[in-house]
Amino acid sequence: MLKIVNGSKSYVHNKETVNILRPFNLSIKKGEFVAIRGKSGSGKSTLLHILGCMDQLTEGDYYSHEVKLSTNQDHTLAEFRGRHFGFVFQAYHLVREFTALQNIEAPMAYQQVPRKQRRERALALLSQVGLEDKARYYPAQLSGGQQQRVAIARALANQPDVIFADEPTGNLDRDNGDAIIALLCELQRQGTTLVMVTHDDDLGKLAERSIYLDNGLLETPV
Taking the CB of the first residue and of the last residue of the chain, which one, N or C, has fewer CB atoms within 10 A? Predict the structure, then answer.
């Protein structure tokens, strides 16, 4: 489903090249649960952002759903990302001025889903994450665990094939974190591909495969 061939990521600072991701190859299969692990600054989030089309390789090719994405224009990447990918972040990134329901509806509005249809789907997703009674609540009125569940519902709004999660439990207590991981694992069991950045050894053990990054080098990348 996801494939990088001869990929690398670097930038120039003070006339010197800084290597974020050194040359590598990577394949992720449909329905797989992959953990991206390593120390802070090792390139984990950069790799996740490239896989999620929020960043691009400096060199190499990226294929998703058998489509070559490396040279696509930004608006084409945004359209592809909206159709196929969902994102869950450590900081939730909910729109403060939107209710829980409106936050979940927003990605569908970008995809021009009719209003009635997106309202029905948003309500169904709130029910799926156990927050059907919080539809009219704003993020500030929700706990951290509840906000993360809204973020997961939002990630599912356009029925993505892949969910990218960047330290999704990093701001949560253990009980809420366990509930979020249980929900993500259940989605993966239902066929969604799950790619997760994590520092947590316990979370890493839940994955079917781990990719380790050390100073931009991938270990066990295939």
Answer: C
From the list 110, 111, 108, the residue with the least C-alpha distance to 120 is 108
Say how many C-beta atoms besides its own lie within 10 A of residue 55's C-beta: 16
Instruction: Encode pLDDT of 173-205 as tens digits.
Output: 888 888 888 988 999 999 999 999 998 888 888
Residue 90 main-chain phi, psi, to 5 deg: -60, -35
C-alpha Rg value of the chain to the nearest Å:
18
Rounded CA-CA distance 221/212 in Å is: 8
Exposure class string for 167-204: b at 16+ Cβ within 10 A, else e: bbbebbeeebbebbbebbeebbeeebbbbbbbebeebe
Distance, CA of 212 to CA of 115 (rounded, Å)? 43
- Cα dihedral angle (209, 89, 180, 199), rounded to 10 degrees? 50
Using DSSP's 3-state secondary structure scheme, residue 202 falls into: helix
Q: Which two tokens stand for residue 112?
A: 């021009």
Q: Using CA atoms, how far apart are residues 222 and 218, in angstroms rounded to an integer?
A: 9
Instruction: Name, in order, each residue with C-beta under 8 angstroms of 78's C-beta and a sequence gap of 6 or more.
Output: 53
Q: What is the pLDDT of residues 18-45, one digit of tens each?
A: 999 999 999 999 999 999 999 988 999 9
Is the pTM of the predicted complex or chain greater than 0.85? yes
- Find the length of the chain: 222
Which candidate, 196, 184, 203, places its Cα nearest to that of 36? 196
Which tokens belong to 215? 């100073």
